[in-house]
Write a structure and sequence with these properties.
The complex is a heterodimer of chains A (537) and B (379). Chain A has 537 residues and is an all-alpha fold. Chain A is built from 18 helices and no strands. In chain A, α5 runs antiparallel to α8. The chains are: A mainly alpha (537), B alpha+beta (379). Chains A and B meet through α4, α7, α9, α10 and α11 of A and α1, α2, α3, β7 and β8 of B.
């Protein structure tokens, strides 16, 4: 307890230093507010807008991909450009859209939910955000250099990535910068959560969103340096004559895949664990009933995180591993279904005998459970090695990971935005716009991705700019769905902008079933909140 | 599209439809795996169906409960919320049951994995090499040993660019398919020349990455006669989508006949490396080699693709010293360059293509490169 008090005092003093400038008058005006801010709410806002703009950029690339695949034959672009689009769509959505969005949520919500005045390292917080725009610029600018942007897949597999032009180097530097930003963000989140909780808030009293972020942040600190290391090895292979991944020089291209996926699989959980956290906040609120099995949720999250570090080679079942390795990675991967199942069962039990109402956040949370579970089923199918041998690198895998990343992570993010918008803006969002956004997204998402299961099973490889006539109809359906899904996101933009500009005044606690600390603050949350920490009983 | 597609979509939603749909080869509404043509592929097919039934049962169980709750436990119906928040017994039960289900799934899978990995006692061994963007086959051991050829997609650029009609074999046929006899254990040694590719034949349940510098093996035993198609399944550059794997399975007698034909052909094709050709002979032969191996990047008009693939028309290499030109064609470009090594081509083919490149478009060196020069260069 003493430690908590000391650290709290530190946080308080920190707030005072800044208070000297702006405590009475609020933040400075204009650009300088955003460039120099150390306020967790401002930084959270910037993270969220940044990730939304990258979501649009990555979405436009998806638009290009689906437009080319609308019909058989090459209509709109060269195969090289198509490969650049798939590569950068993946990279931008993962590193530019989903991850920064969750960090934005952490910035806004973690201090408010644990009763802290700000993040632990406020200046580092500013820096970890401002690293993102240059990285995004590198990724986008790569399209305009000779040879075009990297076109070897977001996974950077050598030797193909060694063949690329300078667009690949820009991609590597962008990943270095994004990684540095993520590591700083994670250290900040870990320190904030461990040291700045309000008196009385023990670890096992923390909201589940905070728990999932704590575990995610540890995963990030663990694996981002691994990614940085392996892309650096790639860089030296490309330019400085090393042969880490070149068999002719004593290296091994498969070693790259092992290192990459040691990062890459935990990365998948980095993108889904905070989503679990958001859903675990929304469901109890709108069920008006406490979360079922809080402690088993915490343990399940931790076991998923630990297991995620020993399953990486299931991305590599076709590289020709020995039979024992195939079996080990199959069993370990299947084991992840157990804690994930526990979560789904707990959510269902939370809803059971609740008193449910279906505002937009709740719709997205239910949509999340429904579609994420389908993604979980296809995940188990992929885990079974003999079946995976058939579906590896086909559209089945594309369908699988969009079910967990789009209707998983992204739907949870949408739910979270609608859930906390009243707290952030002080206004209620337009419920009918929100519901329209949900139903359009729900329908078009399934039109886009459900048919891709069939394409994959029937043998259509992924990352191809063209396909046999047999696949034409399902591809056309999928493209129509994708256009619809993309356009539906404009409704989201409209709903958010409308809510920022005005709307019904939000009460401090607009949701009757909400219980966490941020709802004790007025809406909109004051620029400096919890300057005096609350006491949690 | 239209009504048929709509009907199919309805079918899709009824997940139960999933099972038992054995489909013909090019059905545009194929919902399941390609019909198996080997024992392993059949096992995979059956396991997949089993997994789907299990998933369906869980789906109905979980979402049945959730649906009941969604319909009945609503605030708008005046339902009062209960206040329970955990039950250790229930939580242990729903941790243990999935565990047992997973063991039931893993047991048959384990047996299949062990069988897939057992590449012992093959009747025929064939080396498969992935090139950007074609496949090479070398029959190493067993009936047909010594046969060796390159297999290229028959899809034309005009078809790809919508200037020629496409048929049902669009992207799915090769000029020379891999030929194997029915009912024989075929071991494939898979490797690559440049980047990683993957050799996949869905009907046999075999997919193996082709890794440059390493040889990995896999096996299959076809139990049906016919033509079976797969595609490269590891992104390998711009024409990744256009390197089909085509396997023709024959009755043993027919296969023996095919082997004899191939042997006769290759005997006839053997050329004395010291034979001297004229410029026109080499140019004509070289144009064909160029179209099959070089035009994908450097383009038929020799202009390449600016910024990505260098032009040969007027290039320093194609108009400079012969030795450097031969060196790049045989050994590939500098480290990191996309230019692959073509040492798998014959002396005659390399001599022809180098001669062609030095005398095509605006390149007027007048140089003639004879096969004997290539032969000497290799030593």
């Amino acid at each position: 307890m003493a430690a908590v008090h000391d650290d709290h005092a530190h946080g308080h003093g920190h707030g005072h230093e800044h208070g000297h400038d702006d405590h009475a008058h609020g933040p400075p005006k204009g650009m300088m507010r955003w460039l120099t801010t150390t306020n967790h709410k401002d930084i959270g806002t910037m993270y969220l807008w940044f990730s939304f703009s990258m979501f649009i950029v990555g979405g436009l690339m998806a638009f290009g991909i689906r437009a080319e695949l609308f019909q058989p034959g090459m209509q709109l672009m060269t195969p090289e450009f198509f490969n650049s689009l798939t590569t950068n769509h993946g990279l931008i959505m993962v590193f530019g859209a989903i991850m920064p969005a969750f960090v934005g949520f952490a910035n806004w919500q973690v201090p408010m939910m644990i009763g802290a005045p700000d993040m632990a390292f406020a200046r580092m917080n500013n820096w970890s955000f401002w690293l993102l725009p240059p990285a995004a610029l590198l990724l986008v600018a790569a399209f305009f250099v000779p040879g075009g942007a990297g076109a070897g897949g977001w996974t950077f597999y050598p030797p193909l990535s060694v063949q690329m032009g300078m667009g690949m180097d820009m991609m590597i530097f962008a990943v270095h910068i994004l990684g540095a930003s993520s590591i700083m963000g994670s250290i900040n989140i870990i320190t904030t959560i461990l040291n700045m909780r309000a008196p009385g808030m023990t670890l096992m009293k923390m909201p589940l969103f905070v728990w999932t972020w704590l575990i995610t942040a540890y995963l990030l600190v663990l694996v981002m340096p691994v990614l940085a290391g392996t892309v650096t090895m790639l860089l030296t292979d490309r330019h400085f004559g090393t042969n880490f991944f070149n068999a002719a020089g004593g290296g091994d291209p498969i070693m790259f895949q092992h290192i990459f996926w040691f990062f890459g699989h935990p990365e998948v959980y980095i993108m889904i664990l905070p989503a679990f956290g958001i859903v675990s906040e929304i469901l109890p609120t709108f069920s008006r009933k406490p979360l079922f099995g809080y402690s088993s949720m915490v343990y399940a999250t931790a076991s998923i995180a630990i297991l995620s570090c020993v399953v990486w080679a299931h991305h590599m079942f076709t590289v020709g591993m020995p039979v024992t390795a195939q079996l080990f990675f199959m069993y370990a991967t299947m084991l992840i279904a157990v804690p994930t199942g526990v979560k789904v069962f707990n959510w269902t039990a939370t809803m059971w005998q609740g008193s449910m109402s279906f505002e937009t956040p709740m719709l997205f949370a239910i949509g999340f459970i429904f579609l994420f579970t389908i993604g979980g089923f296809s995940g188990v199918v992929c885990a079974v090695v003999p079946v995976d041998i058939q579906v590896q690198e086909t559209y089945y895998v594309i369908a699988h990971f969009h079910y967990v990343l789009v209707s998983g992570s992204l739907f949870a993010l949408f739910g979270g935005v609608y859930y906390w918008l009243p707290k952030w803006t002080g206004h209620m969002y337009d419920e009918s716009l929100g519901k329209l956004h949900f139903w359009m997204s729900m329908v078009f998402f399934n039109v886009t991705f459900f048919v891709q299961h069939f394409l994959g099973l029937a043998g259509m490889p992924r990352r191809v700019p063209d396909y046999a006539l047999q696949f034409a109809d399902f591809n056309m359906i999928s493209s129509i769905g994708a256009f619809g899904f993309g356009l539906s996101q404009l409704i989201f933009l409209a709903a958010v902008v409308k809510c920022i500009r005005g709307g019904k005044k939000a009460e401090a606690k607009p949701w009757e079933g909400a219980t966490t600390l941020e709802w004790d603050l007025p809406s909109p949350a004051p620029y400096h909140s919890w300057v005096t920490p609350p006491v949690v009983k | 599209m239209s009504s048929k597609a709509a009907a199919t979509l309805l079918g899709i939603l009824a997940i139960a439809l999933y099972s038992g749909l054995g489909m013909a080869a090019a059905d545009p509404y194929q919902l399941n795996f390609t019909e198996p043509a080997s024992a392993i592929a059949s096992q995979i097919y059956d396991q997949h169906i089993m997994l789907l039934w299990i998933c369906l049962a869980i789906f109905i169980g979980v979402f049945g409960v959730m649906l009941y709750s969604l319909l009945n436990h609503r605030k708008s119906l005046g339902y009062k919320a209960a206040n329970f928040h955990h039950s250790t017994t229930v939580e242990i039960i729903w941790t243990v049951i999935p565990f047992i289900i997973l063991i039931a799934m893993a047991y048959p899978a384990t047996k299949t994995v062990i069988a897939m990995k057992d590449t012992s006692n093959p009747d025929i061994t064939i080396k498969v090499t992935g090139y950007q963007w074609q496949w090479g086959y070398d029959y190493l051991v067993g009936e047909g040993a010594g046969i060796s050829f390159i297999s290229r997609s028959t899809t034309t650029l005009d078809q790809r660019n919508n200037k020629a009609p496409k048929d049902e074999f669009y992207m799915l046929r090769a000029d020379k398919p891999l030929v194997v006899p029915i009912g024989k254990r075929v071991r494939v040694l898979v490797t690559a020349n440049d980047v990683i590719h993957a050799w996949w034949v869905p009907a046999f349940g075999v997919k193996q990455d082709a890794i440059p510098g390493f040889i990995r093996d896999a096996w299959f035993q076809a139990d049906k006669v016919g033509t079976f198609v797969g595609q490269c399944t590891e992104l390998c550059g711009k024409d990744h989508g256009f390197m089909p794997i085509v396997v023709e399975v024959m009755e043993p007698a027919q296969y023996t006949q095919w082997v004899a034909e191939q042997k006769a052909q290759s005997a006839a094709a053997v050329v004395d490396v010291n034979k001297v050709f004229t410029l026109d002979e080499l140019k004509a032969a070289g144009e064909k080699v160029y179209a099959g191996n070089c035009a994908a990047c450097h383009q038929a008009n020799g202009q390449g693709i600016p910024g990505t693939f260098v032009a040969l028309d007027g290039s320093k290499v194609a108009t400079g010293p012969k030795a450097e030109h031969i060196n790049i064609v045989v050994n590939g470009g500098k480290a990191g360059s996309a230019m692959a090594a073509f040492k798998h081509l014959s002396d005659v083919e390399i001599a022809a293509v180098v001669t062609y490149e030095r005398n095509a478009w605006s390149n007027m060196t007048g140089d003639v490169v004879q096969p004997s020069e290539i032969n000497a260069f290799r030593k």
